[in-house]
Structures are given as structure tokens and as C-alpha cells.
Write a structure and sequence with these properties.
Blueprint lengths: L1 H14 L1 H6 L1 H9 L3 H4 L4 E4 L5 E5 L2 E2 L19 E5 L5 H9 L4 E6 L2 H7 L6 H4 L3 E6 L6 H9 L7 E5 L8 H43 L3 E2 L14 E4 L5 H4 L3 H7 L1 E5 L3 H6 L6 E4 L4 H4 L6 E10 L10 E8 L7 H6 L12 H12 L3 E5 L16 H9 L6 H9 L5 E4 L5 E4 L1 H15 L5 E4 L10 E3 L3
Parallel strand pairs: 4-5, 4-7, 5-6, 8-13, 9-10, 9-14, 10-11, 11-12, 12-13, 14-17, 17-18
Antiparallel strand pairs: 1-2, 2-3, 15-16
């Protein structure tokens, strides 16, 4: 065992010198140990029938008692990032790496002692030779997805596969359970993105070609980066959820004290009370998204429009239009056309883009109004919104407004959540994905505080409620 440890730790130090230095005291203890069972009491080591090492932890065997070396992961050698949630002694990982030197692998282990224990018994040379390998010891949960995205490369969709063996994760089930939830959400997000691409890919391409003429006329949002970093005013993100109705009576006063960024669906309600937002955000490529601002004017507002927005958006009457660019899969000539305009991160809804822009511009405090991500009192949008008016305008005896509203509420696996009053509120999987995006981005942006002015909104971890 001593020779195997020396071989492994030498290769580990050569490959990951910074990580090796970080745990040099623990490595030194292992190197000088005589009895590994005293150093690693969590494993009971024994020989399998074929004379290979196997181990058990708390009465559960990590590997076969007969031929542990034949164990393999149920993983394909695709271009996805492989997340290994614990590895036991490492038989499966070693066998996978022997055949998959070009794979992108992240090994997650919250307890470094378990990882170094594995290096004492098996030859990990094939693992440490993998070029795109990340060994994440005691990694904070909110850093796992950024790790995978970095390994995936720039401007590439981060596709993830993960392996979870129940026996390998029992020593820290809470950590691995949280990681699994995070990875499942990310995989679901990728599935949604793929379906969105199939549905709207041609529309993105067509809109982008028609909007190419505006690329030279509109400045990019990149020119606004950090332009408000010295402005002490908070930002107010206005969305079109039903709870916005309670904030609207105070909106003129809020306008004097904050920088207002409004999503396209809430603009009509804002202009109706005589308040023009500082910024308006519209990113949806569909004609129906344009209809939220069609026929309106906001002379003092700045419009942030995506390069693939419906072309008529760029004729909106306002102070100025800035163009943003999302990493949609467009042809190379179009990518060059919009290059340098500035990327705004999106979680699938226009409100997520608005939050990203506020952060880019230098916001330190962001308050939200109408960001319900749920159906408070079984309402879908604020009264007077384009959607709500269209429902009433097109209703008839066969398809009533109540029927249309019900279709919206129950069309995406409706479920219950909690609002800031502790009451049950209806939501769905789509809006849960948006909420998770806010949760993850807020956690990874410690310099920005986010609040909600609406108790009726679904609780989003990281967003605290504030009195109006």
C-alpha cells in the first residue's frame, strides 16, 4: 500500500500542485502513517474473493465482495461533463478513465479524508492522466455549476451527466442530496433550452437577419457596464405579476428614489399611471412579445432589446435603444454582426435578463415588484396587462376568460409553494426554474442584495421581503 500511495500522491502533486499544497498537512500524516485503518477509521478494509481490496462503511459494502475491480459506471463517452458524486475506493472511476482519456470529469468529495484514503489502496494513474479533470474537495455547492461551465468551455452549452452510487455518499448525504437537486435542475434547464431551440431556432435566425441593419445604429449594453456603480440609488425591477397592483399607487414616489427597470409585460400598467421607467427590457423573439409595447410611447425611457427580438421592437418610440446579445446558436456571419454588443445572462424569463442588466450596470441593491413566479389568489398577471386584456377581448361563451386563465395556470405541472406570508400559493415547474435561476445567481453575486416588496410572491431563497 505504501508504494501505491507514494506513486499516487507524487502524480497528484505534479498534476494539482496548488491543491496538494492546500492539504499538505493531511498528506504528510498519511505519508508517515503505519496503520491506515487508524488514520481512516470510517472504512473497514478486507480482501475480496479475487484478492482485490474492498471496503465497507457503517456496515454497507462500497464494492463487490467477489470482483470489485470489474465494476464500471453506466456512462457514455459523450461530450458532456461527467460529475462523479463520491467514488469509494475508485474502481469505477479508474476503469472509466482507462477508456475515456478525453472526457471532462469533475470528482466531488466533501470530505478530503475519503479521497486520500482511496489513494492508499488503488493505482489512480489513469485518472490523474485525464487532461480535463477537476478534483473538487470540500467544494461549496454554489460553485459546482460554474466549475462545470468552465470545464465545458466558452460559448458552449454545459451538458451534464452525473453518477451517484448510494453507498459512496452515505458519509455526507445532506451535501450530496443538495448537489443532486442542483444537477437535476441544471439538466432540466438544458432540456428546456434544447426544446426552445427546436421551437424558436428558425425564428431567432430570421429576426437576427432582419435586425442586422440595426446593429450599426444601436449601441450595445456593454457600453453601460458599471455606468451606475457610483449611483447610490437602489434599483426597482418591475414585473407583471398580480402583486404589482399593490405597489403601483406608490410608483411615482418610488420613481423619485430609485432607478426603475421594467419588463415589457409591465410597461402598459406603468404608463397607465403616468410613470415612465428608466429602462425597459424586451428579449422575447415572438410577435406577441412585441404586442406588449405596440402602440405605446415612453420618451424618457431606454429600451434594452435583444438582437433576436421581433424587428418592430427597434422602432419603439423612446429615448434610446441599446442592443444586447444572448448566446443563441446563430450562423457565424450573424455572430460577427452582433459581436461586442454585450451578453446578458438569462434564466428563461425577461425578468432574469432585467436583473442581469441591473447587476451589469452596477446595482448594489435591487428591489422587485410583481416578481411573483406564482399565481397569487389564482391570478396570472396584473389587471390591465396586455395578456389580461387579450383574455377578455377574445373570450366567448365556449372559451371563457376563466377557461383561458385556467389553461395558463394548469398547463405546466402546477404545484404548491409558500409565499412570504407563509401561505400556500400555486406555481409550476417553469416558474420554479426561474426561481432557481435567481437563487443561484444571487448566491454567486455576494455584492448585490435583492429584496421583494410583495409578500404575496413565492419565496425565493436569497430574496428577502422589504416593507414598501
Amino acid at each position: 500500500m505504501n508504494s501505491i500511495w507514494n506513486k499516487n500522491i507524487s502524480a497528484f502533486h505534479k498534476r494539482f500542485p496548488a491543491l496538494s499544497d492546500l492539504y499538505k498537512n493531511q498528506i504528510s500524516q498519511v505519508s508517515s502513517a503505519i496503520n491506515y485503518e487508524v488514520l481512516f477509521p470510517f472504512w473497514k478494509m478486507e480482501k475480496a474473493r479475487n484478492d482485490e481490496w474492498t471496503a465497507s462503511e457503517n456496515g454497507t459494502y462500497l464494492h463487490s465482495k467477489y470482483r470489485p475491480g470489474s465494476s464500471k459506471f453506466n456512462l457514455e463517452n459523450s461530450d458532456s461533463v461527467k460529475i462523479i458524486l463520491g467514488c469509494g475506493l475508485g474502481y469505477e472511476l479508474i476503469n472509466f478513465c482507462k477508456d475515456s482519456k478525453q472526457s471532462k470529469i469533475v470528482l466531488l468529495e466533501p470530505d478530503p479524508a475519503h479521497f486520500f484514503a482511496a489513494l492508499c489502496f488503488l493505482d489512480w494513474t489513469s485518472v490523474l492522466e485525464v487532461e480535463k479533470l477537476v478534483i473538487a474537495l470540500a467544494c461549496p455547492i454554489d460553485q459546482i455549476i460554474p466549475l462545470c461551465e468552465n470545464l465545458s468551455g466558452k460559448n458552449q452549452s454545459c451538458k451534464i451527466d452525473y453518477v451517484l452510487n448510494p453507498a459512496f455518499v452515505k458519509h455526507n448525504e445532506d451535501y450530496f442530496s443538495s448537489v443532486k437537486t442542483l444537477l437535476d435542475r441544471n439538466i432540466r434547464k438544458n432540456q428546456i433550452n434544447e426544446n426552445t431551440l427546436k421551437k424558436f431556432g428558425k425564428l431567432w435566425e430570421r429576426n437576427a437577419r432582419m435586425n442586422a441593419k440595426y446593429a450599426g445604429l444601436c449601441d450595445g449594453v456593454e457600453t453601460l457596464r458599471n455606468s451606475f456603480k457610483n449611483d447610490s440609488r437602489p434599483w426597482l425591477l418591475v414585473a407583471a405579476g398580480p402583486s404589482l397592483e399593490k405597489v403601483l399607487p406608490k410608483m411615482k414616489e418610488l420613481k423619485e428614489k430609485s432607478i426603475i427597470i421594467c419588463v415589457d409585460t409591465a410597461l402598459r400598467a406603468m404608463l397607465k399611471i403616468g410613470v415612465e421607467p428608466d429602462f425597459i427590457v424586451l428579449t422575447d423573439p415572438q410577435f406577441w412579445a412585441y404586442m406588449h409595447i405596440a402602440g405605446l410611447k415612453s420618451p424618457s425611457s431606454i429600451l434594452i432589446a435583444d438582437a433576436v427580438s421581433y424587428p418592430a421592437v427597434f422602432r419603439f418610440s423612446c429615448k434610446k435603444i441599446y442592443m444586447s446579445f444572448s448566446p443563441f446558436p446563430l450562423s457565424e456571419d450573424l455572430k460577427k454582426c452582433f459581436e461586442g454588443k454585450g451578453l446578458l445572462e438569462s434564466g428563461g424569463s425577461v425578468a432574469t435578463v432585467a436583473w442581469s442588466f441591473a447587476v451589469m450596470a452596477g446595482a448594489k441593491k435591487i428591489f422587485t415588484a410583481g416578481l411573483d413566479l406564482s399565481f397569487p389568489k389564482k391570478q396570472t398577471h396584473i389587471k390591465g396587462s396586455t395578456f389580461e386584456q387579450a383574455v377578455h377581448r377574445t373570450s366567448n361563451r365556449i372559451v371563457s376568460s376563466e377557461r383561458r386563465t385556467g389553461d395558463v395556470m394548469f398547463g405546466a405541472d402546477v404545484s404548491l409553494a409558500k409565499d412570504y406570508n407563509g401561505n400556500d400559493v400555486l406555481t409550476d415547474n417553469r416558474m420554479k426554474m426561474f426561481a432557481w435561476w435567481f437563487e443561484s445567481k444571487i448566491a454567486s453575486t455576494p455584492g448585490v442584495e435583492t429584496f421583494t416588496l410583495c409578500y404575496e410572491s413565492m419565496v425565493i431563497p436569497g430574496i428577502t421581503v422589504s416593507e414598501l
